[in-house]
Amino acid sequence: MFIVTLTYVVPLEQIDAAMAEHMKFLNKYYQANVFVASGRKVPRTGGIILVLAQSKDEVETIMAEDPFCIHKLAEFTITEFLTSQAHPDLKKLLAKSKSLK
Fold first, then answer.
1. Which site from 8, 23, 76, 99 is most exposed, i.e. has the minimal number of CB atoms within 10 Å?
2. pLDDT at residue 98 in the model
3. CA 83 to chain centre
4. Where do the domains of the chain lie?
């Protein structure tokens, strides 16, 4: 699993103008069972996305499609971690994602 941390590098007005396009990007990967959760950081300086992927390269390829990244509205970092414990419902999603690959 990976944590993508987005950091906005432009004023929020530009972020808000691209939000609908960004939401389409997010929804694409939720439907593919790749994204687990996402949301704004508090204070609103960026966002977080939890990603199920096989490699950091795969996450980088996915994030290259994000309008926030395409239009240079945000920068991102990727942190990989191994899930040693999880809520039972998340365990089902993790198992499902492994069977899809």
1. 99
2. 59
3. 17
4. 2-100
d(CA 15, CA 8) in angstroms, rounded, equals 8
Residue carrying structure tokens 């239009």: 71
Tell me, what's the pLDDT at 97? 63
Distance CA 51, CA 38 (A): 9
What is the spatial distance between Cα 31 and Cα 49, in angstroms, rounded to a whole number?
A: 14
Tokens, residue 3:
């944590």
How much is the pLDDT for 24? 98
Taking the chain, what is the end-to-end CA distance rounded to the nearest angstrom?
14
Model confidence at 83: pLDDT above 90: no
Pick the CATH number of 2-100 from 3.40.50.300, 2.60.120.470, 1.50.10.20, 3.30.70.1060: 3.30.70.1060
Amino acid 62 reads I
Sign of the Cα pseudo-torsion (42, 63, 3, 74, in order)? negative
